[in-house]
Write a structure and sequence with these properties.
It is built from 19 helices and 24 strands. By secondary structure, it is an alpha/beta fold.
Length: 558
């Protein structure tokens, strides 16, 4: 029997053995994306450059490599990026997944510039699709049409041979119904406006066909539900669109019980590719789906329900946004308050007591102030890292801006709303009330976590025009030159962070996505250009050539 080793001998031999093995065998890894022009966000929000991305066998980032770093030798795959720009998958912090697919597979009026164009599309759609009997769609915008009024049932009654028609406004806060749809829903002159909603009427009090905010339910209750196969097709279409624009993860704002079941079916069948963080459409579906707390991540990190979505008011386009002072172009109106103070606090409190996150749609300055008052009060009871979310935060009284930092309120905003809405915002508010409008730079200056999204299908989910808008405050035509309220511009790193690291933070997912940090999921894009050296027009035109999720290529440009 040989001599026994002392403890220090054992540790010495162990260290020597480890050193020898490290020299004898190259590091093991499953995949390498090499020769990339890589960018990601660091722990302090800074931009980090790299040349190679090592992916482990769990689909996570193992290591970022510089040009001089040794490459692993034993690999399952190696891709030469050939100098293409590689960035983390982009995260849309506010979208509507099922609605995106539904709009894409129905009548889409979002590209129309006049009522006549919309009428022609509707007539052709009705001729080409005799079934189902009900015709659905949306995207109309009377402001873009320069109509000077809302469209009416009489504008479309003759186009569909008596078939019921229900068309959503571009912002989802109003619908246009024809006479057949109103008859099916039992709408008459005697029908009263519901709380939080308004029926547009003519001089004699007759409904004209436009139903705003909560009044939409009067019409939608009569619309036959979609078949399960149609709902599955909508989710598949939505994922195809998102992946094509480089959106690898999204927050679904307003998930219904049926939406959740569609997503679960896709997950069960292995068809769920985009990562979805779901916020239930109110308290009842939240408790029905998630029960006593946020669900775990399902389907290898592709689906989770984390919280509840509420509405404090409507939208500017339909004059439903709740303002502190009357509308400049409608002095008799201040918009719609959806929830009184007690109900808002009760709903938020009930969700918070079980650890759910709360996200509330608030566009007008009165709605935002009401919500911040509620957060002030609730934060005394529900302490810790709550990440209360204000969705849109479009019109803020400048005096209220510092309140975002007090409780770490996430400002979940959409850059493309500013370029789409600026002329309407000027008309609705007047020049003296715009200082806190679409105020991205002010949010950052006031230490608010800024998360960007698109509010698709209200806007396109394409994030690259949004990045361009964030740094320029100009639309696709370069208007207005120099930017609208240019003091609110932010730089590209800040905008990029809002679509990646902070968007992940907004949904409590910063431990797994939002940056290409070792240990995070290998969700990334290979782009057709370097957005960090490009001008604004080139950023706007950027496109993914490949989209990868969990270390697997899931979409390739055709």
């Amino acid at each position: 029997m040989g001599p026994r080793l002392r403890g220090d001998d054992v540790w010495g031999w162990g260290a020597l053995l480890a050193a020898v093995l490290s020299l004898a065998s190259p590091a093991l890894a499953d995949g390498l994306i090499d020769n990339a022009n890589g960018y990601t966000i660091g722990a302090k929000g800074e931009l980090i450059r790299f040349n190679g991305l090592v992916i482990d066998d769990y689909g996570k980032v193992a290591k970022l490599l510089d040009r001089t770093d040794k490459r692993p030798e034993k690999l399952d795959f190696k891709l030469d990026a050939k100098g293409r720009t590689l960035i983390p998958g982009l995260i849309d912090a506010h979208g509507h997944v099922m609605e995106l697919g539904a709009v894409a597979l129905s009548l889409d009026l979002s590209g129309t510039n006049s009522l006549a164009e919309a009428q022609a599309l509707l007539a052709r759609y009705a001729r080409e699709r005799p079934t189902p009997v009900w015709i659905g769609g949306g995207g109309w915008n009377q402001e873009r049409w320069k109509l000077g009024r809302y469209p009416t049932a009489s504008d479309i009654d003759s186009l569909t041979a008596g078939r019921p028609v229900v068309l959503s406004r571009i912002d989802g806060h109003a619908v246009l119904a024809n006479s057949a749809a109103m008859a099916a829903a039992g709408i008459t002159t005697k029908t009263k406006d519901p709380a939080g909603g308004r029926i547009e009427r003519d001089a004699k009090g007759n409904p004209t066909g436009v139903f705003i905010d909560a009044a939409q339910t009067l019409i939608r209750a009569a619309v036959p539900p979609s078949l399960p196969r149609d709902r599955d097709a909508q989710l598949a279409k939505a994922q195809e669109i998102l992946l094509g624009f480089g959106i690898t993860a999204t927050d679904d704002m307003g998930t219904s019980v049926d939406d959740w079941q569609v997503m679960r079916r896709a997950g069960d069948a292995g068809r769920l590719r985009v990562r979805i963080t779901a916020y239930a459409r109110g308290l009842e579906p939240l408790l029905s789906i998630a029960g006593t707390g946020p669900t775990p991540w399902l389907y290898d990190g592709h689906l989770r329900m984390i919280g509840m979505k509420l509405y404090a008011d409507g939208a500017l386009g339909s004059r439903g946004a709740w303002l502190k002072a009357p509308y400049a172009d409608a002095p008799g109106q201040r918009g719609l308050q959806f929830l009184d103070d007690a109900k808002l606090r009760n709903l938020m409190s009930r969700a918070a007591m079980d650890g759910f996150q709360v996200a509330v749609h608030a566009i007008g300055d009165a709605a935002n102030a009401q919500l911040m008052d509620a957060i002030d009060e609730l934060s005394d009871t529900y302490k810790g890292d709550r990440r209360w979310r204000i969705e849109h935060a479009q019109i803020i009284d400048p005096a209220d801006l510092p309140r975002f930092a007090k409780h770490g309120i996430v400002a979940s905003m959409q850059p493309v709303h500013q370029t789409s809405d600026r002329l309407m915002a000027e008309a609705r508010l007047g020049p003296q009330r715009l200082a806190g409008a679409y105020a991205w730079k002010s949010m950052l200056d006031n230490k608010a976590p800024l998360a960007f999204g698109s509010d698709y299908p209200v806007e396109s989910p394409n994030p690259f025009p949004a990045l361009a808008a964030a740094i320029s405050r100009e639309d696709a035509a370069g208007q207005p030159a120099g930017g609208w309220m240019p003091a609110q511009k932010i730089d590209l790193t800040q905008a990029f962070r809002a679509f990646t690291a902070t968007a992940a933070y907004a949904g409590f997912a910063e431990d797994r996505i939002g940056s290409l940090t070792p240990g995070h999921m290998a969700d990334f894009l290979l782009l057709d250009r370097d957005i960090f050296t490009a001008g604004t027009a080139d950023i706007r035109a950027a496109r993914p050539e490949e989209t990868w999720i969990g270390g697997k290529r899931v979409w390739v440009a055709k």
